[in-house]
Design brief:
Helices cover 39% and strands 15% of the residues. The chain is of the alpha/beta class.
């Protein structure tokens, strides 16, 4: 059977979500092609030729882009069986089925795709209305024995986001996953409705084999895409030690919760010694009330402690934020900018983080809160979220202005410091002179510390 796997967006990295199922489906006898619409145009010939077209839906932006592509795929090949798989597929099941998607697979989707393949091969054919019903579970959390991802036919790593080292040099970046899911249940996290506080590991030999083939393809740095690399500390530490022993010049980055960085602070030097350049952590807010509502498991003071711990270990801290929620005020946004400046984190925060607005997708645990249910509007099947408005219209206007500014300035290649300065100015104007931020001091600090370590970061400008 001819299978076409399509990714629309995966944060500027070569998709594990294409390479992993490609290995499973090829082993099962399928003829597999992969398309990454983030870097290539839709191949109409490949669409017309496919008997099964499966869209990888790992995040909000990817799903919205896939919705646009679905219409074109259906027009080109109305006989193809359509599948949506990945984190956002089961969360949007009813909407996707209304668009003509026949099979929805979430969680550990590789075995489900093989089952779907076998189901379609065993079906005798017939009109679209006679398609065999889905027998695969909507969400599978079965423990899988993974295969080494098959990256044959994917665009070269050089076509994806690069690592800017901060010293004028850049590196080619690979991407892999050592685990999926998360043992925590933060209210706003899209992982939670699917994994419900559980996580699954990718076996160490598979991860190492995947890294090995990407290094052979030119990778000089690897991003681990796990929602939390320290969910299974006993899995993570032997993995990075083995990787470093085999590839001592290879650098990498990971994502770890503030809570885990504190709990496992003694292992931060291990990260640095094995080549970790920076750690991304979803701080989300510096307001303890907001952090409690989101059930983040940390406080503002915890964040401050982690900044100090990472610096002490020689690691760059890459904090991410949900800067705009129904509970943040203009004054609170001013306070966030001032704290980032005071902590000398301006260069370490991706500009888009200054404009992120809380998303409330289908199935979000935020809907458990009465105050959220009273606030949100009915689910918007175009935006794929429950819309909400801030009680202070000035906050919504500021967020819109910031989002446009960040997109414009990042597209033109402006430096993080300059984009931060523009955000600072917009925040000041938002209150019409009612409040003025103290003097922006990051530029002065840079002059005072000319020998400060360069800040590494990935060039992909977007986030979710």
């Amino acid at each position: 059977m001819r299978v076409l796997l399509i990714s629309t967006y995966d944060l500027g990295r070569q998709p594990f979500g294409l390479a992993s199922p490609a290995a499973w489906l090829r082993r099962a006898g399928a003829e597999v092609r992969c398309l990454d619409l983030a870097v290539d145009r839709l191949d109409e010939g490949a669409v017309r030729d496919a008997e099964l077209v499966a869209f990888y839906l790992p995040m909000h932006t990817a799903t919205r882009l896939a919705v646009r592509a679905l219409e074109r795929v259906r027009a080109l090949n109305p006989r193809a069986h359509l599948c949506g798989y990945g984190l956002y597929a089961p969360m949007n099941e009813s909407f996707l089925r209304a668009l003509g998607v026949h099979t929805i697979l979430g969680g550990e989707f590789e075995a489900g795709l093989v089952s779907l393949l076998e189901r379609l091969v065993g079906h005798s054919g017939g009109p679209t209305t006679a398609r065999p019903a889905q027998r695969e579970p909507l969400v599978s959390l079965d423990r899988q024995a993974f295969l080494t991802p098959d990256r044959a036919g994917l665009p070269a790593l050089s076509r994806y986001a690069r690592l800017e080292c901060g010293d004028g040099h850049s590196r080619t970046v690979g991407y892999t996953e050592a685990s999926r899911g998360c043992r925590h249940r933060c209210r706003h996290c899209p992982v939670v409705p699917v994994y419900q506080g559980r996580f699954r590991i990718v076996q160490r030999d598979v991860v190492l084999a995947d890294i090995r083939q990407q290094v052979a393809a030119g990778a000089e740095h690897v991003t681990f895409g796990d929602p939390d690399f320290f969910n299974g500390i006993g899995h993570a530490l032997p993995l990075i030690r083995a990787m470093h022993a085999e590839h001592p010049a290879l650098t990498y980055d990971v994502t770890v919760k503030i809570e885990h960085l504190l709990r496992h602070a003694e292992h931060l030097p291990t990260l640095r010694k094995t080549g970790c350049l920076f750690v991304t952590s979803a701080v989300e807010s510096i307001d303890d009330r907001v952090l409690t509502l989101l059930e983040k498991g940390h406080t503002r003071d915890d964040f401050l402690r982690v900044v100090r711990l990472c610096r002490g270990a020689g690691l760059t801290m890459n904090p991410t934020f949900v800067a705009f929620t129904p509970w943040n005020s203009l004054a609170g946004y001013h306070e966030l900018l001032a704290l980032l400046d005071e902590l000398d984190l301006v260069d370490q925060v991706a500009p888009v983080q200054l404009a992120i607005r809380l998303l409330i997708p289908a199935g979000s645990r935020l809907l458990e809160l009465p105050e959220v249910r009273d606030l949100v509007e009915p689910f918007d099947e175009v935006a794929l979220v429950h819309p909400w408005r801030h009680p202070d219209p000035r906050v919504d206007r500021l967020q819109t202005e910031l989002q446009r500014m960040v997109h414009r300035e990042a597209t033109h290649g402006h430096e993080r410091r300059e984009i931060f300065r523009r955000a600072w100015d917009l925040a000041e104007r938002a209150r019409g002179g009612e409040y003025r931020l103290r003097v922006f001091c990051a530029d002065a600090r840079a002059r005072e510390w000319p020998d400060r370590a360069p800040v590494p970061y990935l060039t992909e400008p977007w986030y979710c």
